[in-house]
Every structure is written in structure tokens, then in C-alpha cells.
Design goal:
With about 120 residues, the chain is α+β, with helices and mostly antiparallel strands. It has one domain: PH-domain like (Roll). Helix content is about 30%, strand content about 35%. The protein has 3 helices and 9 strands. A hairpin with a 5-residue loop joins strand 4 and strand 5. The longest helix is centred in the N-terminal third of the chain and has 17 residues. It is globular. The two termini are about 20 Å apart.
């Protein structure tokens, strides 16, 4: 498959970036946003959101799906932030029916983020 090296490089870059950590917009239930420092732990088992001394570690094994706003609507997965979602949003659907929604700069970045995650 001639796309395998490209996919491998994209995934490697994504992992390296997340291991260092990035500041990424997270949408809260009321539509407001926070900009936590988001990183992947060295074992690559948890994504950590770090904002103002508060930290949340999300075990990747708890992520049941990564969904766009359209996919959430199509699958009838209703969230309290539904009115605030747009094509830049990528929602982690976690075990226990919890959600974490990231909003990227544009739709292309969202597609990349969702595919790599």
C-alpha cells in the first residue's frame, strides 16, 4: 500500500506533537471554552488536559469513539453542547456516556486530529 508511509509519518508527527503537548480549545457544556495544555503521556495510554492547576487524565481505553458533530446527530447521541458544535469539533465519546469536545482551527485539522486519535 503506497499510502502506508504517509500515514505512518502523519501518525508519528501527531504522537510527537501530543507527547510535547499542545494548547487546544475544549468546549464546555455551557458553550464556553477553555484552552488546556493537552498532552499524551509517555506510555501513550492517557490524554491529559491541564488548565489552571486542574488536571484530567483521560484513559484512551475509555474512548469508545471519536465523532464529528454530524456523526453525533446521525447516531442520535445527544449532548448538552449540541447547539455549540460545528464542523471544527471532534468529540471523544467516553465509557460511562461522558464527552470531551475539542474544537480545532478548521475542518481539515479536525479530520487529521480525529483520524490520528
Amino acid at each position: 500500500d503506497d499510502k502506508a508511509p504517509i500515514l505512518h509519518e502523519a501518525l508519528s508527527t501527531f504522537v510527537r506533537t501530543l507527547l510535547r503537548g499542545i494548547c487546544i480549545e475544549v468546549l464546555l457544556d455551557d458553550g464556553s471554552v477553555i484552552f488546556p495544555h493537552t498532552s499524551l503521556n509517555s506510555e501513550m495510554t492517557h490524554i491529559t488536559l491541564d488548565v489552571n492547576e486542574a488536571q484530567r487524565a483521560i484513559p484512551l481505553c475509555d474512548v469508545e469513539r471519536v465523532a464529528t458533530a454530524r456523526e453525533l446527530r446521525t447516531k442520535n447521541i445527544l449532548t448538552s453542547i449540541q447547539p455549540y458544535l460545528d464542523d471544527r469539533c471532534c468529540t471523544l465519546v467516553l465509557r460511562g456516556f461522558e464527552f470531551v469536545t475539542f474544537r480545532l482551527d478548521n475542518e481539515r485539522h479536525r479530520e487529521y486530529f480525529a483520524a490520528c486519535l
